[in-house]
Design goal:
It contains twelve helices and eight strands. The protein is α+β, with helices and mostly antiparallel strands and 256 residues long. The strands form three sheets. Strands 3, 4, 5 and 6 form a four-stranded antiparallel β-sheet that branches. About 4% of the residues have low confidence. This is DDE Tnp4 domain-containing protein. It comes from Porites lobata.
């Protein structure tokens, strides 16, 4: 299938050869006008991590240059990512595209000069890398993570919170919620419309631990009672039942 740019070039050639008159050319040119801006990327160099210094990596990706390789290994990033329309990028490049996108609010067009890729490809790569990381590591926050939710660790959390002057001596984490605005969907708009924020949004709720980690995550949901999210079920397992069966009591009081 020809792109809008190629069709417009053919129309211009047809007009110059006299195959189209002025009215026909203007009508067809307007009909095949792309709705998205046409950003030039051919003149930009492709991404090269070797050409970036440590300060640039920290500013654009929020990771130092030598830490990016460690992050790639920990996240089990593959050697390459292949988009559904057959664009292929290196695994490290794909990770940097996602980090650049998440480091600071920006448009994909702002990333063209760094990566030398068109906006649609940047969008597809960013989504593919994000999906890969979530599918590979989601169990760490949606299911029981024994490394951060074991009895010894919960005792440390409760001691730290209590040591800061908390009224409760058996609190190990805090229920935190966030509303993430999204584009207005074409269907079922009422399901995700948030009357309080006056935007269409998805809600997430988590147990935040005092060490800054997420102990468990629930979401996304649309129009749902925020206070009731954790009442029965959190994530992929019953959080209340997990506390009752596996945590027991700390300092003769049940953890909260």
């Amino acid at each position: 299938m020809s792109s809008f740019h190629e069709v417009q070039e053919q129309l211009l050639l047809s007009y110059e050869d006299g195959m189209l008159d002025e009215d026909e050319f203007l009508l067809l040119h307007e009909q095949f006008m792309p709705t998205n801006p046409n950003f030039s990327y051919e003149e930009c160099d492709r991404f090269s991590l070797d050409e970036m210094n440590d300060a640039e990596c920290l500013a654009e990706f929020r990771f130092r240059k030598h830490d990016l390789q460690i992050l790639s290994e920990v996240l089990q990033i593959p050697d390459s990512f292949r988009c559904y329309q057959r664009s292929v990028v290196d695994g490290m490049e794909g990770l940097c595209i996602l980090l650049r996108r998440l480091s600071y609010p920006c448009r994909y067009s702002d990333m063209i000069s760094r990566f030398g890729l068109p906006v649609p490809v940047l969008s597809m790569v960013s989504n593919d890398v994000l999906d890969f990381i979530y599918n590979t590591h989601r169990h760490r926050i949606t299911q029981r993570n024994h490394n951060v939710l074991n009895p010894a660790a919960l005792q440390i959390y409760s001691n730290v919170i209590s040591g800061k002057g908390a009224a409760l001596h058996n609190c190990f984490g805090f229920v935190d919620g966030t509303v993430r605005p999204v584009c207005r969907p074409g269907e079922h708009q009422r399901v995700i419309y948030n009357g309080h924020k006056r935007v269409h949004a998805l809600k997430f709720q988590c147990v935040a631990l005092p060490n800054g980690l997420i102990g468990n995550l629930f979401g996304p949901v649309g129009k749902f009672c925020r206070e009731c999210l954790y009442k029965e079920r959190v994530g992929d397992f019953n959080f209340t039942m997990f506390l009752t069966r596996h945590i027991g009591r700390v300092k003769s009081e049940r953890l909260m």
